[in-house]
Every structure is written in C-alpha cells, then in structure tokens.
Structure to design on (909 residues):
C-alpha cells in the first residue's frame, strides 16, 4: 500500500481511533458452538445495548464497543445473539441501529482480527462477519441505520444491510467501502449489497478507488436515504419507523425477501469457499505487510 | 392490514372508485379456451376502444371500463385480443394506450376477481394477468403509455410494460406498485419490470412501502419519462411516436427483445408455478380477510 | 432504413467523414494467425501512437487513423497488439486513450468491413472487435478515455470499456450506441457494457432509439464521468490517473475483475456463436442494402 493511500485512509478515519483497543495484539480463545448456545440464554452483552419498547414494537440497538465499534469476533458474536433474540420475539417488528461512541458509527472490521492470526482463527472471524450480514440482510424486522458518525468499510456494510439509512449531516463524517485503500478487497457480497443500493457503475468506481463519501455526497449517489442534524437522528429514525410499521408485516416481509433472496443465496450457498478465499488472501505475506504498515500508521497517529 | 395503511390506500385512490362495479360480488362463468377463440373473430369489444390510423401506422387504445378500468378477467381478455389483432397487422407499428375514464388510467387488478373466488377461477384470472404482461412487454410494436390519470398497482404495471411513459402533470394523480398496502405482494415479474425501469434500490423501497408517487416524484425516480399538461398528453404521445417510428423496425425490435427477453423468459418458463403461488397466497383466510376489510372501506367511502 | 433516420445519422456524424478512406471498396488480404504473431514483434504501428512514461507508469495511446479513427480490422489488430504489449509490461500501470484526429474520438466500426465482404472476412473482423473489448474491459491497467471528439457506436463502446471517461465540453460532439439508426443492432456485450454504466432503463431507450448524447446529456445520464474544456482534457486525464495510481494495484485489479468478470465471461464463453450471429445478420440482403444506402448518403455528403 502506498503511503499516499495510507494517509488518505487515516485522514478518512481522522479522530476515529483516539485510543487503541486495550486487547491490542492479544489472542482470544475460540468460542465453541456449545458455549455460544449457552451464552445465548444468559449473556450480559457489554458491547451492544438493546432497548426494546413493547408498546411500539421497536428495539434500539446501541453499539458501544470503545473506541470505534470495531467489528471484532466478540462484537460480531454479541451482535448476532442480540439480533437473533429480537428476531425470535414476534412482538419486535422494527430495529434501529445506532452508535453510543462519539463521531463513529462503526469503523468496520477489526484489523487486529486479521493481522498475525492463525488461518483457523481468521476463518472463524470471517464466518462471524458472514453471519452478521446474512442475519441482518434477511431480517424480518424493519431495520433502520441511524448513522451518527463515520462508517467506513464493514461499518458501511452494516448500514447498507438495513432497510433505510439516515445519516448525521456532519461534513467531517464519511461513509464508504474503502477496503482497497488498505490493499484488501471487499468480497462479492459487500459488492452485491452496494450495487443493490447505488447501482453497478457507482459501485465499480467506489470500490476500485476505495471512496469515502461525505454525507451530502452519500445522499447524492444514494448510499444513504436522508440527512438530518445529528441531534435529530434518533427522533427522525423513530418517525420513519412509524411509517414503515403502517405496512402489513407479512406482505412487507415477503416483498423484502423477494428483493434480497437472490443476493443472500449467492453467499449462503458458497460460505465455505468464501471463508477459504478470505483466509488464503488475508494470510498472504504481502497482505499481512500492508496491514502492519497500516497499523503502524495508526499507532503513530495515536502517539 | 392496519387501518392506517387502508386509509392511505383510499387516500391514494381518492376519487377513483365513485361507483362500485355493477357485478359486485357476483360470479362469472369461466370462459373455455374454445369460446375464447371464437370470440376473437367476432368480438365487439366494449371495454377497450381501438382506433387504427393506417396512414401513420399507429393505433390508439382507449381503456373505457367504468368506473376505473379495473383489470378484470373480461377486461384482460379483451385487452389481449385487441393487442394480438394489432400485433398481427404488420401495418401497425405503434400503439398508444390511454384512458377514456376521468382521473384514472387504470386502478389495477380487480379486487373482486380475487375475493371469494374458487382457486380455479383465481388461477384463470392470474393467467390472464400474465398474458397481458407477456404480450405487452414483448410487443414488436412501439408502445407508449399516455397516463392521463392515477395508475396504482396493476395499472402501474401496464404503464411500466410500455416503451415510453408520458404522464399528465396533475398533482392529484398517483402512480406506483402499492400492493403491500393491501396486504398482498407484487409478484417477481412486477418487481423485475419495475427494477428494469428504476433500478433495484428504488424498487426495494417502493415495493416494501407500497409507495404511490406524484407525477413529479415519478419523473424524478424515472417511473415515467415525461410530464405534460393533461390536455396535451395525446398530442405529445403522437409526436413522441413519430420519433420512434423513424427507427428501422427490425433493428429496434431485435434490440427491444435483447433488453427484455431474460425478464420475459423468467415468467414464461415458470407460469404454472407462478399461478399456483398466486392462488395459494390469495385464497388464504388472512389475505381474504384483508381484501374484505379493504372492500368494506371502499363501500363506506362510496356511501 | 428510413431516410429520416439516415439523415439523423449523418447529422449526428456531421463533419466526421470529410474524406472517405482511400481503400474505399477495396478488399484486404486475410491475416493468418501466424503472420499476426510475427507482426507482434516487429510491427511499426501507424494507426496508433503509444507514448509510455516509465517515471509515472502511464502510457498515452493516440488514435490516428484518418479521417475518423474507424475501427477497421487493421486498426483493431494494431490496437490489440499495442494493448497487449503495455499489459505485459508490469511497469505500465495506467493507460490514457485519446484521439489525434480533429473532432472525433472514434467513429466506430468501419462500415466498409461489413459491406460486400465474404462471411469469412466478416467473421474475422468481428473476432477482432470482440478481442478489443475483451482485452480492454479486462485490462489490469487503469484505463481512462480522454474523449476529445464525437464517439458514436463502436467509438462509444471503446470509451465505455475504460475505467473512467472524461469528455471535451464541446456541444457539437456526440456520444452513444446509435447502431439502430443504421438498421443494425448492438450485440449483447455492447448492451451489457452500457447497462453496467448507465443502468437498464437508460440503455433500453438509448439502444432502441440509437440516441447520440451531447456531452452535457452524456454527463447527466452517466455515460461519461466528467466534462472539461477540450484543451484541458489530457491534463485532467493525467491528474485523474494520479488519483487512481494511489490505490494499491493488486486490490484494485481484483476489485475490477470482480465487477467485470461476469460480463466478460458471457462473451468469452460464447464467442463462436456471437461471431456466427453477427455474420448471419450482417450478410443478409436487407442489411447490406441498408448499409449501401448509408454509404451512398455519406458519399453524397462528401461530394
């Protein structure tokens, strides 16, 4: 990765990584499926706060994994458990996703999960990224992203996977799938999700250049649906949700599935190959070197 | 279906259903194919008026089935017969479709054909809806919709199936695939036709919310191609037709087929499954209940 | 083809064909593959001038086949050889394509290659057109079209096949796939390339009507990405290239391939059928007659 590109990344993320995560460089024990199942019933999520209002049928999910809501394996696991719980509760019809961290919605995939890790661990991580996308893109609930901060890479994917996107009209915030800037590649289902939202041409150029859009640019190309002042983002999301809740659930759900199923099926029927593809790519020496360069720039920036 | 949604529907259709069809709730004998074939040669169409001008090679088809050009089985049968006659007449190169009813182009599928009917009858009806779309979307003629009134649901489909759409610039008129508002679902080929016109994202949101667009909104998203004052709609359609007639027919027809064949083939190779899918869905108790609620609201509105 | 259509073509191409090619109506010996391979090593290209700057890693390819850079078999053969040489030179990362002829980028496929030729020769020609597209659309290099003149039909295809399009803001210039105006049909991969750029609906209407867009119209529908005064076109292309060069090559190339491979594979796996299809169509009496009419109009215009 050229320095110019790396600088552009850090500029795009400026202020997003004031502190590095405390677990910096430490490993994390693999969670066996059994333990995961047990966690489901008694987990006290710390990285994600969920408030469900039975009177409206709407849940608000607040991402609160300091400093920048990076999508680590822990975070993704908690996210999927929380989502599944809401999905199984038939009284929950709508979900608003927002951030409790200042200036950032989510900084995307946690690079520490991709750097210096074993292939097995990388595969486990990627499976969790897939799971997040599969569950959210196919959710029967109405999903609204209240994007109250920057949202690069995996953070942008999470927003794109919702039914509607409201972004804070703050010019310093950016959103986009900027993977190429780090020398890595958005996988086909990131690309499909973006193309379903902004079309083939905008996606082709944005992914090749790793474009990060300002809120007004994002609105213009259709990456987000609406801009509001940051302090009105939750109230706007709630009002928007009311409009969606007026639609009969069953008809809306079948319609949503009809629109998204072909895209979901492409990954669902190729999960193992996609994991293998990611692991082979990310464990390459050249890619690991790119990630190290990037991490060092972030460290210096912090110091 | 929630009352809020039902009210939105009636608001969207305000003024569209001043009188209920006289056959309200009555059955209709099934037309066997043989009889249909005989009708073809000696039918005097009453629901559709066709004027063909041999000097220009252009036919104008006026929909005149009071009160709102609902797409009943009778109407669709007449429509397909008229279309096929024009298609077989090689001197007819262009077709303009417009309405002779005030304020409405077509109110879409006749709900009375879907409520309280036998599965066989529902299947026959759906086959006729398919036939209308297949014939019109693959027509060798240049087809222009002169949308001189509201055009919800199946009425919107009919317009989308043409080559070009001119709409009257009257803010009270609306157009869109609003099926979800009634608790029903636009089938995949309605969705494909809309996505081919306005793209995946606009379609996803419009179909989930059952959006009805004003003329200026419809122009903005590309659902229609041009707005003109209502009294200029036919003259504009005629002028536009002249421009299309300047293109060599053979090259234009091959080009049109290349653009549309993949979409047409998806239904053509799945007609029986699509009929079965519709019949199973529409005859469900919950869906019948939604339709009854909707019909009762229309009745009250009328009273 | 109607006279009206023919006149529109000539209007669209006005000034593009001041002189007819000197080889008018003459045959050309078929180049066997062996000879082609020999040419590769010692050809001195006359129709295409390539300047490569090793310090920037950027090559500029100037089309200079008088009068209008028609895509003849000779031209296409030189183009592919030049492209392949640059592609194999790993120090060449970017390519700018522009014209050395006044007022025209490229007038598209050479009609003389399609009129009065044997089926074998037509097939050879079509294979070269395919080759140009396959090589350019899948190029690992960053490709920028600096469109400093009109660019109808095959000229538009060449521009669409690049990664980025900058057009001279000169209202007399036009760009578009206008094949139907000549009574011929853009093949599916022309259509796919355009749809990937401007979407299905714009493509459907543009191809049916053979639309030629002014620069500002082309920008509006997304056919080109940027307009600049004609004298700034190369400097703008160079600045744009710098931005693209900042992206790590490997990640950008994989991303580009992910976006374009499905489209490329459709032709790559159907080349022979596509050639046969073209030959059958173009050698029809009716099509040959259309081409003759068109050529006669051009001749008269010249006289």
């Amino acid at each position: 990765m050229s320095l110019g590109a790396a600088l552009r990344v850090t500029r795009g993320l400026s202020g997003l990584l004031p502190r590095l995560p405390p677990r910096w460089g430490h490993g994390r024990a693999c969670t066996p499926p059994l333990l995961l199942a047990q966690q489901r019933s008694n987990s006290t999520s710390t990285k994600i706060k969920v408030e469900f209002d039975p009177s409206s049928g709407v849940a608000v999910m607040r991402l609160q994994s300091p400093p920048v809501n990076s999508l680590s394996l822990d975070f993704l696991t908690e996210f999927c458990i929380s989502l599944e719980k809401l999905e199984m509760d038939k009284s929950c019809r709508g979900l608003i996703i927002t951030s409790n961290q200042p200036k950032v919605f989510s900084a995307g995939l946690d690079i520490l999960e991709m750097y210096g890790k074993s292939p097995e661990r990388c595969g486990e991580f990627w499976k969790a990224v897939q799971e997040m996308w599969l569950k959210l893109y196919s959710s029967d609930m109405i999903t609204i992203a209240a994007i109250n901060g920057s949202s690069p890479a995996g953070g942008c994917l999470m927003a794109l996977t919702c039914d509607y996107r409201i972004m804070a009209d703050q010019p310093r915030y950016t959103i986009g799938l900027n993977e190429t800037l780090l020398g890595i590649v958005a996988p086909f289902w990131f690309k499909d999700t973006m193309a379903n939202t902004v079309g083939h041409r905008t996606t082709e150029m944005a992914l090749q250049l790793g474009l990060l859009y300002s809120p007004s640019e994002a609105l213009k190309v259709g990456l987000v649906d609406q801009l509001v002042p940051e302090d009105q983002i939750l109230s706007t999301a709630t009002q928007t949700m009311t409009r969606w809740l007026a639609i009969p659930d069953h008809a809306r759900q079948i319609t949503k599935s009809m629109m998204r199923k072909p895209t979901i099926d492409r990954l669902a029927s190729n999960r193992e190959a996609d994991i293998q593809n990611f692991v082979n790519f990310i464990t390459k020496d050249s890619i690991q070197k790119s990630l190290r360069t990037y991490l060092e720039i972030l460290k210096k920036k912090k110091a």
